[in-house]
Design goal:
Length: 328
C-alpha cells in the first residue's frame, strides 16, 4: 500500500504541467472526463498496474492550507475511506456500502435544479459541471459518531455551480435529495431513515468557498460507496450533512426538512456544526478517533475535536449571534 499511497498523493498534489507519470495522468484524465472537460478514454487496468512508482509527493501549498482547502495532516488510506462508509441506502454496517453499492448505476445521471431561481432545469451530470475544472480539496471528515478521516477529494465549489441557476432573493436555503431506488438500494427495505435521504444548507453556507460538490476522491472518480457520481462536502459540519448520490437541488425560502433531523430532532440539528463543547445526547463530542496512517490496518488515534472541525477561522462569522450550544 505504501507505493499506492505515494501515487495518490502525487496524483493530487502535482501541477498539471509537471505530470510525467502515466498513472497520474490517466487518473486525472478520467476525472476530467467525468466533468465533461475532455472525452473519456478506454483505459485498461493493466496499463495502470504497469506504471512506474511515482516520486514522493510535494507537501500541500501553504496557500491552500491557509485557505482551508488542504491540510498537512496524515491522509486516511484510500482502502479505509472506501470500505468504512455510511450510506444507509446500502445497509447500516460500515462495510455494507462498499459491497452492496457496486450495482448502483451512476451513468447516465441527471440532477434536477428547481425552486427559487431564474434558470431551473434538469441537467445531465456532464452539463451541470460543464466548463468547471475539478479542484483538489483535502478535508477533514468528522462523523457525528465520533470517528474522523482526512480525505483528498476532487470537486467544484457548490456556490459556483449554483450561481449559474441565478437564485432569487427568496432563495434562503438549498435542499438536496439522494436517489431513492429500491431496485438498486437494498438498505431501503429497512425502516430507518424516511427515504429519500435529504439534507439542506442555508444559502450563505451553500455559497461558502469551502463547500464542495465532489465527483472524485484519491485522484479517481468517486466510487459508489462514497456517493458517486455527485456528493456534498461541508467540512466544518458533521459528516451526515455530506449527502451522497444527489439527484435534486432545490432553492427554497424556508429551512427544509432533513433526514436525520426528522428521525431524531434532539440528536441531529439542522446546522450540525462540529462542536466539541456540545455532546450528542448519548456520547461526548470532545474527541474523535482519527482513522489515518499507513500501518497496513485500520489504525485510529484519539485526538481532540476542534470547533467547526478546525475551520472556525473561515466559517465562524456566519454564525455570529447564534447560540452555538443550541444549534449543534
Ligand atoms: N444518501 C446518504 N448520504 C450520506 C449518508 C447516508 O446514509 N445516505 N451518510 C452520511 C454520513 S453519516 C457520513 S459520516 C458520510 C460518510 O461519507 P463517506 O462514507 O464517504 O466517508 O456520508 C453522509 N452522506
Ligand atoms: Mo456520519
Amino acid at each position: 500500500m505504501a507505493g499506492d499511497h505515494r501515487t495518490l498523493r502525487e496524483a493530487l498534489r502535482i501541477r498539471e504541467s509537471d505530470i510525467t507519470d502515466e498513472t497520474v495522468w490517466r487518473q486525472r484524465r478520467r476525472v476530467l472526463a467525468a466533468f465533461g472537460a475532455i472525452p473519456a478514454l478506454g483505459l485498461s487496468a493493466c496499463a495502470e498496474a504497469e506504471a512506474p512508482p511515482a516520486p514522493t509527493a510535494p507537501p500541500p501549498s501553504p496557500a491552500a492550507v491557509a485557505a482551508g482547502f488542504s491540510t498537512d495532516e496524515t491522509l486516511t488510506r484510500e482502502i479505509d475511506a472506501t470500505t468504512y462508509n455510511n450510506f444507509y441506502e446500502f445497509g447500516t454496517g460500515k462495510a455494507d456500502p462498499s459491497r452492496a453499492a457496486r450495482t448502483l448505476r451512476t451513468s447516465p445521471w441527471q440532477v434536477e435544479v428547481s425552486g427559487e431561481c431564474a434558470r431551473p432545469g434538469t441537467l445531465e451530470l456532464n452539463d451541470l459541471l460543464r466548463g468547471f475544472l475539478p479542484e483538489e480539496r483535502t478535508y477533514r471528515l468528522r462523523c457525528v459518531e465520533g470517528w474522523s478521516m482526512v480525505i483528498p477529494w476532487l470537486g467544484v465549489p457548490l456556490g459556483e455551480v449554483l450561481r449559474r441557476f441565478e437564485p432569487t432573493s427568496n432563495a434562503k436555503y438549498v435542499a438536496f435529495t439522494t436517489l431513492a431506488d429500491r431496485a438498486q438500494m437494498p438498505g431501503m427495505r429497512y425502516r430507518s431513515i424516511d427515504w429519500p435521504y435529504r439534507e439542506g444548507l442555508r444559502i450563505d453556507e451553500a455559497m461558502h468557498p469551502l463547500t464542495l460538490l465532489a465527483t472524485g476522491v484519491y485522484g479517481k472518480p468517486l466510487p459508489q460507496q462514497n456517493g458517486a457520481p455527485l456528493r456534498l462536502l461541508v467540512p466544518w459540519k458533521y459528516g451526515f450533512k455530506g449527502i451522497k448520490s444527489i439527484v435534486a437541488i432545490r432553492f427554497v425560502e424556508r429551512m427544509p426538512p432533513t433526514a436525520w433531523n426528522d428521525l431524531q430532532p434532539r440528536e441531529y440539528g439542522f446546522f450540525a456544526n462540529v462542536n466539541p463543547d456540545v455532546d450528542h445526547p448519548r456520547w461526548s463530542q470532545a474527541s474523535e478517533r482519527r482513522i489515518s496512517g499507513t500501518e497496513g490496518k485500520l489504525f485510529a488515534n484519539r485526538i481532540a475535536t476542534r470547533p467547526f472541525n478546525g475551520y472556525a477561522e473561515h466559517v465562524a462569522s456566519m454564525y455570529a449571534g447564534m447560540d452555538l450550544r443550541r444549534w449543534y
